[in-house]
Amino acid sequence: MTPHLITALLVWSLLMPTAVAQRMFDSSGRALGRVDAERFYNGSGQQLGRVDGERIYDAAGRQLGRIDGTRVYSASGSPIGRIDGERLYSASGSLMGRIDGDRLYDASGRPIGRADGLRRTQMIVFFYFFM
Q1: How far are the Cα atoms of 36, 39, 70, 123, 131 from residue 24, in angstroms, in the given order?
Q2: What is the DSSP string of 57-123?
Q3: Strands (E), 4-78
Q4: Would the pLDDT of 81 be above 80?
Q5: Residues 6+ apart with CB under 8 A from 68
Q6: How far is CA 109 from CA 29, 87, 97, 100, 103, in A?
Q7: Kind of pairing, strands 95-100 and 79-84?
Q8: pTM for the full model?
C-alpha cells in the first residue's frame, strides 16, 4: 500500500460514524428483530433466515423466495408481490404497505414499524418474509 492510500484509509475510518444497530421495531417500539450482515433474527435472538444474493432462506436453510428487481417471488417461483418506488404490493396488485425513510406503513397508512440502520432491500425482505 502506498502512504497516500494508508493515510486516506485512516482518515476515512476516523471520520466515518460507527455502524448503527440494524433493528426492526413494531409501531409501539417493541423490537421485532435485527439483521446482522445478511442474517435475520427475531426479537428473542433466534435466527429467522438469511439472504444470499437475491434468494431468501429460512433458519433451516429452505428457500422462502427471492427478490428479482422489483418483483418478489415465493420459493416455488409464484409472484407474491412487487415494489413500485416506495410502495409494496401483493401479487394481485393490492397495496400492502409502503416504506418512507426508516418507517413502514400498512395499506391504510398506519405505522406498523420502523427500522434503524437497515438498507431498503433488508426492510423489503423483513416486510414480505418475516413480519
Answers
A1: 12, 13, 22, 8, 10
A2: EETTS-EEEEEETTEEEETTS-EEEEEETTEEEETTS-EEEEEETTEEEETTS-EEEEEES--HHHH
A3: 23-26, 31-36, 39-42, 47-52, 55-58, 63-68, 71-74
A4: yes
A5: 54
A6: 17, 11, 7, 11, 11
A7: unpaired
A8: 0.75
